[in-house]
């Protein structure tokens, strides 16, 4: 007895759409981390050593967050692309099966 399975192509398309939307959202996160979190010299006070250390740590953290966002966007885009290939393959196969039944 053969087992039957079905692939919900619309659900797979929804996953791809959501992944692409997530990549777009990550653009905003990256921009915020990069450009909207500046600590100019003297902003935290003047003439104490910790101020320089805090600004340095902040700058380093901004770079690390930017790198994480870039890596995450890359990973999400890769999954989205691979999901699109899978969707295309299943859709093509489904069309082939329908055509062969005519």
Short description:
The protein is mostly helical and 102 residues long. The protein has 2 helices and no strands. The mean pLDDT is 85.
- The count of strands amounts to 0
* Major sheet: none
Oligomer: single chain
Query: So what's the overall shape?
Result: rod-shaped
- What is the helix tally? 2
Strand content: under 5%
Low-confidence stretches: none
Write up what this structure looks like:
The chain is an all-alpha fold. The chain has one domain. The chain contains 2 helices and no strands. Helix 1 (9-35) packs antiparallel against helix 2. The longest helix is centred in the C-terminal third of the chain and has 52 residues, at 49-100. It is rod-shaped, with a radius of gyration of 24 Å. The model has no long low-confidence stretch (mean pLDDT 85).
Please specify the SSE layout and strand pairing.
Layout: H1 9-35, H2 49-100
Helix pairs in contact: 1-2
Spell out the key features of this protein.
102 residues, rod-shaped, 2 helices, single chain, mainly alpha
């Amino acid at each position: 007895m053969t087992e039957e399975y079905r692939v919900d192509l619309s659900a797979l398309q929804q996953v791809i759409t959501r992944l692409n939307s997530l990549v777009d959202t990550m653009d905003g996160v990256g921009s915020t981390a990069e450009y909207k979190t500046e600590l100019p010299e003297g902003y935290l006070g003047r003439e104490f050593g910790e101020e320089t250390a805090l600004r340095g740590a902040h700058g380093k953290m901004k770079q690390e967050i930017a790198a994480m966002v870039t890596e995450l966007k890359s990973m999400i885009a890769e999954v989205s692309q691979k999901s699109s290939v899978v969707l295309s393959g299943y859709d093509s196969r489904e069309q082939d099966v329908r055509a062969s039944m005519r």
